[in-house]
Structures are given as C-alpha cells and as structure tokens.
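Quick illustration for those who missed Monday's session on complexes.
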Amino acid sequence: MTAAGLASLVPGAACVHLVESADIGIVGVGEATLPHLRAFITRLGIDERAFMAATHATFKLGIEFHDFGRVGDSYIHPFGTYGRSLGDIGFHHFWLRRHQAGAVTAIGDYSVGVVAAQERRFAHPGPDPDDLATGYGYAYQFDATRFAPFLRAHAEARGATRTEGRVDGVERDPASGDVRAIVMADGERIEGDLFIDCSGFRALLIGDAMDETWEDWSHWLPCDRAVAAPCASPPGPIEPFTRATAMAAGWRWRIPLRHRVGNGYVYATDHLSDGAATDALVEAMESPPLAEPRLLRFRAGRRRRSWVGNVLAIGLASGFLEPLESTSIYLVQMAITQLIEHFPDRTLTAADRDGFNALVDAEYDRIRDFLILHYHATTRSDSSFWNHVRTMTIPDSLAEKMALWRRTGHVSRYAHGLFLEPSWIAVYLGQGIVPAGWDPRADLPDAAALDRALAALRRGIADAVSGLPDHGAYLAGMGVAA
Ligand SMILES: Cc1cc2nc3c(=O)[nH]c(=O)nc-3n(C[C@H](O)[C@H](O)[C@H](O)COP(=O)(O)OP(=O)(O)OC[C@H]3O[C@@H](n4cnc5c(N)ncnc54)[C@H](O)[C@@H]3O)c2cc1C
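Prediction with flavin-adenine dinucleotide bound:
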C-alpha cells in the first residue's frame, strides 16, 4: 500500500524502492476493511471492479457482534447513520426518549445499513444524501494475500523499483543515528534518504535498528494470539458483513469472501491454551477447515513514535490493535496519507516528524479506547477472561466518554481519529449501556407526532431496503461473483 501510494500520489517527489521477501511473505490475514479504503483505491486510480475481481472481494456494510454485552445479545455496527438528525439534535436523542417509554423498536431498525445487512442486500449507495436508500457506507472483505501482489503491480507500473530478498543488516550514520543503507543477504546495499519500515511484526528498522520504545497496552487488550483457518462458503446468500462472536477467552471472526469464508479466534493465552483455542475454533466453524489452522502471535500496543530520524514505520511495525473493528489496514492508509501531507524534502524537519507522530498517536488512542469498550461494556461473568475485562481499570479517556454517555446520551467528539458518533452509539446501545438522559430539546415534539414520524421512518427504511438486490446477485451482476 505504501509503495503504491507514494508511486501514484507523489511520483515527482520520491524514487520508491520496494524491498520484500517472498520467503518471509506477508501476515496475510487482514480480510475485513473500513469504508476509507474506497477513497484510497479511488485516489490511486484503481478500478473497483478490477480490484474486487483480483482479491475475491465482497461488500461489507458493518460488523455483527454476538454475545459481547451478554450471551445471546447481538447487534450490528453499521457504516452509516441512524435515522435523521433534527437540526443539531442527533436522532438517537429522540429515539432514547421514546425508548424509555417503550414506544420504539431497536435502534438498528432506523439504519439502512443495519436493515440491508440483516436482509443480505446490497447496491452501491446513490449520490443523493437525502434519499433514505443512500444513508449508508460500505467497505470490502477481501483476500489479503491477493491484495499485496495487486498493489505491487500497481506500484511497479508507476515507477517503483523492487528488490526481492532478505534484509540482513542496517548501516547507520554514527553521528546522527540515521539509517544510511539496508544490506541484503546477498550483500547488496540499498541507500536512501527516508526508510519506511513496513516489515510487519519484525519491525526491522523502527525496532531492531532504532530501538524505539514499545508502549504496551496488553493490560487493557489482553488478547495476544489468534488461530485462523478458512472454510468453504456455505450455499445461499453471501453476508455483506463481518461477524464477531465473543468466546470464552476472546472473540471469533467470520469473514465471507467470494471463494471461501475466513475464520479466526483471537484469544488471551493467560486464559486459554493454543490447543483449546484451535479446538474451539474448529468446532464453531460451519464446515471443516480447508487448511491447517495457523497461529499468529502479537501484543497490543504501539511504538512511542512511529517516525524517528529518517525511519518511519507503517503497519504492524508501528503498532498492533486487534482486528475487532477491522482497523489495521485503515491505520496503514492513514499513515500513508499523513506521510504525504508531511512529505519531507531532504532536510527532514522535526516539525514534520512531530506533526506526523501526534496524528498517529491520536488515531491509535481513539481506536484503543473504542476496542476496550467492546470488552469492558459487558455483564458477562462466565469465564476468567470476561471477569478480567469487565472489572479492569480502563483509560481515563474512555472512562470520561462512558460517564458522559451514561449521564446525558452525548458522545464525546474529537477532531482527529476514527469512529464518529454513530459507531459509539452502536456499541453503547448494542452492549446494553442505555443513558439515563438525552438532549432536553428532544422533549419538545409532541409524543404522538414523534411516534408517527419514527414509524414512518422505519417503514421508509424497510421499503428502501426491500428494493435493493441480493448481495450475491449484485456481485454476479458486476461480473465479480465466484
Ligand atoms: C490475526 C490478525 C487478523 C487481522 N485481521 C485484520 C482485518 O480483518 N482487517 C485489517 O484491517 N487488518 C487486519 N490485521 C492486520 C493486517 O494483517 C495488517 O495490518 C496488514 O496485513 C499489514 O501488515 P504489514 O504490511 O504491516 O506486515 P506484513 O504483512 O507482515 O508484511 C511485512 C513485509 O515485510 C517483509 N519483510 C519482513 N522482514 C523482512 C526482511 N528481513 N527482509 C525483507 N523483507 C522483509 C515481508 O516479506 C512482508 O512483505 C490482522 C492481523 C492479525 C495478526
């Protein structure tokens, strides 16, 4: 993504040299994405249909969560909004008022994205934001092992050179500490002005060479391992959503692609052994694994700074947050965008680095808090893992957000970072945190008139969704079905 982004977007400002090793390969399990990826693909001039065909992609309207707040609960976190705001009063305040009176159904019934996901329907949203049938966003579920070579070809076609082989050493300037060259296993030296460390969990430059401090967040996000295995796609509709199901010591993903279903169990080794996790995953899968289950080790956290000297880390080299909300590929994309905005000349100023690092920090912190919420907002007490996350001390930044919501129904706003109001509302309400109050201005409309308006909105959404095609049929119509 980084090589393709730089070669496409700042072709005159940099000569891009991509170094990667087919022997080492990529981590290859990033299959669920966020709507931002569409902007990335579009900016790179990539045709959506070609990208979807190459990566066996399906559309994604959100994530369906099961058993998080309480065993038996489920909700969808959609890419899109709920209902319609009235002026600057969010729709959910009106919904909360009538919910307290028992006069409304689940808030998901007022979201096109949720209802379309439930009915397995999909079409590209139209351009009119006021049209009920267009109030949703979408992302992709794809085969990550096909995305990397697809982008590599894109980067090379735009002038990036590529060296295949293993990096074996790093030469640093003794005075400044900057990296001068990387040394390949066959002895080749590759010099550069700016080195972008995309070496994944190995963190060859930011970790091994620059020794940048790792900020550990595993006390808040204790899952440190995943076991992953694909299985065959079942007959019938293809779900336009990713599913996350809470398990005894973590959670399990299910990601429907065109040619197979991706599955994985993300768990905490303090609470479950690898063998037990593998057995639990295989038992929960809808059909036998198509490949030997694969173990992946990680730790939640990030480098204190992602850009140090002339080394800038992107992707897993800069940090890791578990894929509960499909955020890692977004973080890669965000870092590329910020790098381009702070793109240095040969002088590499501290201001560029500080600006970049501050924005990356904010993004990581917001996502971290949002992920912790999924664990902490629970009444589950059926395993040592859930007892731990339910009772652990959470970051002050999250505690403040939750307190504000509980009291007023308002979602804390921030200038930088992922997850806007509807996302927080989805998880708060989906996991049973119903606020005591709401915006007092939501009390102004007459109750009967408000109920009529809410019912009309719900009917309008149901009608709009019933006009959308089946997701699988839509993919077939695009010429990208299996
Ligand atoms: C269990 C799990 C599930 C995930 N699910 C999702 C998801 O659903 N959605 C999402 O957005 N993200 C997800 N992610 C994260 C996602 O996989 C990564 O963000 C994404 O793949 C980018 O990884 P990367 O490029 O940083 O590292 P890698 O994919 O590990 O790539 C590292 C690259 O560095 C090269 N390299 C390493 N060492 C050397 C060396 N010595 N010499 C030469 N080359 C070298 C490798 O060849 C490779 O090309 C998941 C991660 C895990 C662990």
